[in-house]
Amino acid sequence: MLGTFVFALSGAAAGVKRKLDFFGIMAVSFAAANSGGIARDLLIGATPPAAITDWRYLAVSLAAGVLTFFWHPAIHRLHHFVLIADAGGLALFAVSGAQKALALGLPPVMAALLGMLTGIGGGIMRDLLLNEVPSVLRSEIYAIAALAGAAIVVGGHLLVLPPTTMAIAGALVCFGIRLLAIVRHWHLPAPASQAQQHSERD
Amino acid sequence: MLGTFVFALSGAAAGVKRKLDFFGIMAVSFAAANSGGIARDLLIGATPPAAITDWRYLAVSLAAGVLTFFWHPAIHRLHHFVLIADAGGLALFAVSGAQKALALGLPPVMAALLGMLTGIGGGIMRDLLLNEVPSVLRSEIYAIAALAGAAIVVGGHLLVLPPTTMAIAGALVCFGIRLLAIVRHWHLPAPASQAQQHSERD
Amino acid sequence: MLGTFVFALSGAAAGVKRKLDFFGIMAVSFAAANSGGIARDLLIGATPPAAITDWRYLAVSLAAGVLTFFWHPAIHRLHHFVLIADAGGLALFAVSGAQKALALGLPPVMAALLGMLTGIGGGIMRDLLLNEVPSVLRSEIYAIAALAGAAIVVGGHLLVLPPTTMAIAGALVCFGIRLLAIVRHWHLPAPASQAQQHSERD
């Protein structure tokens, strides 16, 4: 639920910057907080998704949206706190997403990737709705942190290690990698520069 | 079916303005008319969606697309008629979407929201395909009208009122709010202005 | 699998041009190669989709992504080969998509359209993630070639002709139309020019 709340905050803050109206900000809050879980549930056939049947996801998302709508300058000042909370949300979503995929019998590699998708899907939908290239595709260590956390959960499952311990370990690793990436400005490599810059797509 | 037709008209008209080719206009017509219902059906697990198994949705969508392709100046002149018809489509989609979600046993709040999604989903997909921020997120009383209509259907269900009467009431309320919003230029509030205008997203 | 590989190449090449990072290029490779099949499987209720449960789709997609990441100038020089391979991928996806939809009992027209969607869905998702209007909606004979190939498979099914022969015929027709369209610069008609150019959307 904390993860849902901070992801909704990130969606609402992005909506405020794009000058959406009240409904738009609520919609992007909900989408940013719940699209990852909804995408995972649709892909594994667990319909209707929990975000649709459990009203608490909606309530938490809207609370974050209303808060941001009225106090967005304050939330902007809390920028660093929101970034840390977002890293926490990413860790919780990646771990719980991987656990749910394992429980439904998906193969290990796919369970890890679905954990990652649970973590990053909300941000992708937020950016698509706001007509931007998803930031997770462009820079920063974000998806990789989610993948590492999810992989630890899946690895523990394969080695029959205690699930709760591995879940905590996975969440801490994801959270730690993400925080270090923020503090140290880590980036993934981009492809080498090209001669054909700005040429039309084929 | 009238709702499908006018939503397809709105998609085709938007496609003509963005200079899509014949196939693109047909595709956006179909997406604008049917994405809301398809999204609702995927979320509640009612697969395959009616828009995929019942050829009439396709036929009506393509008819609207062909009409717009050849006579788009005339349809542009019918601008006000299309706006009114679109309000009618919104009302019909919101009410029928809420009814279908209730019939599948979803909780009341979620049934109302899925009714709204059925009404607005097509426009969102149309705008995503045309690379624009969905207009429903930015301005105008549109989603709220759909939500009001869907909420009346759900409220009637909770109070065990006659479903047909409540469906008609919900559709009329949605249609009325939307028409009033168009005539009186109602808007939802946007967030208060910001110091950090045009700053990069975090 | 060849289709998956060349579609992933097209996604990765587009990602390199938009200066995504390593993860972004892998993600767009996978999305471009598998979104068509995933969309089809979600619509017909065949969850989890094969692209999620069978690790080979992932492996082939990532291989194409890594190849493009390191050798994209070479792949750019192979431009014409990639276009031809893409036409082959389109043919294979359209035919296999139509076969799967028929096997699940969808009506003939819808099976043909789902075959087409299997072929074009990856390119649509690739362009949405890169914040562009999907190229398949704007120009060139692409979706129509996929539809023709899928329609031949469906027509053969209706006439109880030998499925393998019809699948080969459908794939050849799709491949041939697409290659001819590239060589001869065929385009679909766009709507007649308009007075209200660049006017705001309604």
End-to-end CA span of chain A? 44 Å
| Number of DSSP E strands of chain A | 0
Q: Give unreliable regions of chain A as ranges.
A: 194-202
Oligomer: homotrimer
Biggest interface pair, residues each?
A: B-C, 41 and 35 residues
- What is the total domain count of chain A? 1
The geometry of chain A reads as globular
Radius of gyration of chain A (CA) equals 17 Å
What share of residues are in beta strands of chain A? under 5%
| Mean pLDDT over the residues of chain A | 86
Classify the helix fraction of chain A into a percent range.
over 70%
Main β-sheet of chain A: number of strands, strand sense, barrel status?
none
**Total of DSSP H or I helical runs spanning 4+ residues of chain A:** 8
SSE run of chain A: HHHHHHHH
- Overall structural class of chain A, as computed from helix and strand content, comes to mainly alpha
Structure description:
- Three copies of one chain form a homotrimer.
- Chain A contains eight helices and no strands.
- Chain A is an all-alpha fold and 202 residues long.
- Residues 194-202 of chain A have low confidence and may be disordered.
- At the B-C interface, helix 1, helix 2, helix 4 and helix 5 of B face helix 2 and helix 6 of C.
